[in-house]
Amino acid sequence: MIDPHLNENDLLLRKTIRDFVDRELIPNASKYDLNEKFPHDAINKIAEMGLFRLGIDETFGGVEGTNMHLAIATEEIARGCASTAVIYASHMSLCSKYIELYGDLKQKSLYLPRLVEASTIGALALTEPDAGSDVASIKTLATKVDEGFIINGSKHFITNGQEAGIVIVVASTDPGLGSKGLETFILEAPSEGLTVTPQQGKLGIRASSTCELNFNNVFIPNENRLGKASKGFHMTMQVLDAGRILIAAQSVGIAQMALEISIQYAQQRKAFGNYISEFQAIQNKLADMATEIQAARLLTYRSAALSDYNQPFETEASMAKLYASKVAVESANQAVQIHGGIGYFAPNIAERLYRDAKVTEIYEGTSEIQRILIARSLLSG
Ligand SMILES: Cc1cc2nc3c(=O)[nH]c(=O)nc-3n(C[C@H](O)[C@H](O)[C@H](O)COP(=O)(O)OP(=O)(O)OC[C@H]3O[C@@H](n4cnc5c(N)ncnc54)[C@H](O)[C@@H]3O)c2cc1C
Questions:
Q1: Global confidence as pTM
Q2: Hey, what domains does the chain have and what are their CATH numbers?
Q3: Average of pLDDT values for 150-155?
Q4: What is the average per-residue pLDDT within 98-123?
Q5: What percent of the chain has pLDDT over 90?
Q6: Residue nearest to atom 6 of ligand 1 (CA)
Q7: Residues 6+ apart with CB under 8 A from 81
Q8: Centroid of ligand 1 to alpha carbon of 233 (angstroms)
Q9: Which of 129, 244, 248, 296 is the most exposed place for a label (fewest CB within 10 A)?
């Protein structure tokens, strides 16, 4: 079928990943969730398919790819397993892309080949116990010494923290300078003085690791500072702008699966002598879900396409994330409702989606922060 928004390459990529997801991810996603274990087998297969190479310079082992491709890959993976999707999206958009965008030749040559093979996993350590939305309030200290920096402080909620061999760390050389004092570093893990502690008890995306990182006099050499001095805030905000496209795509994938299982269940469950799909109340839910998912997908595609055409895309990315995350939460809610009591119990997929969806409204900028960004852009012109 022709899709006016996707070209032949996009469609082929989508079909290849969808086949993989149907075959390998959907049958295992509940197990990953229940075991709360990092899905090494799924990540290895995604690496074998070359998806960690997408959009990274060929010189460093990457293959041609656009932000649209990354969005398609993330959506399709999330349709099968939202945990695997956040592992993929964090690795790609918050670590590989950070180094590709701001690394020098030596840094790219050293780190990108390992990241594109996923022989090591990547992470971004930004959030701290006292600084989440308010990034400029970061307190983790980077003290300059002769040959590098000494890092002290702590980060929390870091996706892939447990598995990551390459961590992008954002720290301040002087917390009094706010956003102007931020620097970004590439840290290889494990590292002397770095303690990684998994944070248990997540509502959803339970197969992904989320960790606390404590830095006790961790040394990072000068050559591992990323980009220009004092530009850590600016660079990180740019990385997060593009990262939001992938969280929007993850949200669309979650919502899409909620719709698919709802259609299937409605056509097999009988009540009052009829399939529940014959009740208009259920049909209305399906129609609303399908319409909202398509709108969320188009916003996501639009922000990806704008960034691929080197056009301003930041506001559209915020709109896509704001709307798609809301659609994910609402679609998962309706999927549970359509399933009735069975949808409330694990390992029903609706139950998992309901838990997995919520975080899309929180990470990489909460919905409140997206509204602030959108309004700021509306009022600035
Ligand atoms: C599962 C998970 C994985 C994560 N992965 C990573 C990761 O890999 N790397 C990383 O660095 N971080 C990660 N995070 C952190 C995430 O990005 C933050 O949790 C998020 O940015 C919100 O920050 P906070 O939790 O400190 O909440 P706060 O900033 O304390 O916000 C609390 C509430 O106040 C609201 N609020 C804050 N400021 C304003 C304002 N100005 N106006 C209106 N409302 C406001 C927020 O929207 C929210 O509702 C992850 C979080 C989770 C839950």
A1: 0.98
A2: 8-120 (1.10.540.10), 123-230 (2.40.110.10), 233-380 (1.20.140.10)
A3: 98
A4: 98
A5: 98
A6: 158
A7: 21, 25, 26, 28, 29, 32, 33, 39, 42, 207
A8: 16
A9: 129
Residue 128: is its pLDDT beyond 80? yes
Catalytic (active-site) positions: 364
Count of CB atoms within 10 A of residue 9's CB?
14
Nearest atom (ligand 1) to Cα of 131: 26
Say whether pLDDT at 4 is over 90: no
**Cβ partners under 8 Å of residue 105, min gap 6:** none
Tokens representing 125 are: 């350590």
- pLDDT category at 1 given cuts 50, 70, 90 is low
Q: Given a cut of 80, is residue 2 above it in pLDDT?
A: no
- What length is written for the chain? 381
Region 88-107: what's the mean pLDDT? 98
Pocket of ligand 1 (CB under 6 A): 90, 123-127, 132-133, 157-159, 202, 205, 210, 359, 362-366, 368-369, 372
CA-nearest residue, atom 4 of ligand 1: 157
The tokens for 148 are 């590098």
